[in-house]
Amino acid sequence: MAQKVEPFWKRKSLGEMSREEWESLCDGCGRCCLQKLQDEEDEQVYYTRVACRYMTDNCRCSVYASRNEKVPTCVWLKPEDVEQFYWLPTTCAYRLIWEGKELDWWHPLVSGDTETVHTAGISVRGKTLSDADIPEDQWEEQIINWCSE
Question: Residue 34: in which H helix or E strand, if any?
Fold first, then answer.
């Protein structure tokens, strides 16, 4: 009888993952593509419902390969920066694995379906405004709390 092999995310650290494995951890929720504000005094990060102009209706980046050229402030998640992931949503696979927690049932790697992140209401699909339409000085008016929970 064949022995059951644990999924890569349960047997490898973030730093041990291949590029393909690393990229597959992204659940496609789009939360990290929301514009965020950080309080200078206590460093608290606040999410807004203002999304990057390059986010598609499917919560994916339309310029992924050149995102850092198009948006120099775009955050590029890398294994060596894992200790900086505190700002990621508590639902994010990168953060969950870093914290030693399980992926949720709706994560595509668990469910086998890229739509479960949307049907579970985790993604930002249909909940955002584009940063092309909202000036940065108005982002504070768009702070949300459902994303950092």
Answer: strand 34-38
Tokens of 33: 């593509």
pLDDT tens digits for 87-145? 888 999 999 999 999 999 999 999 999 999 999 999 999 999 999 999 999 999 999 98
**Taking a C-beta distance cutoff of 8 angstroms, is the pair 129, 142 a contact?**
yes
Phi, psi for 143 (deg, rounded to 5): -65, 140
Q: 33 lies in which domain range?
A: 8-142
Cβ partners under 8 Å of residue 24, min gap 6: 108, 109
In a domain, 124, yes or no: yes
The verdict on residue 95 lying in a domain is yes
- Classify residue 2: in a domain, yes or no: no
**Length of the chain in residues, anyone?**
149
Report how many domains make up the chain: 1
Query: Is residue 147 one of the residues assigned to a domain?
Result: no
**pLDDT value of residue 83:** 83
- Distances from the Cα of 25 to the Cα of 19, 60, 131, angstroms: 10, 13, 26
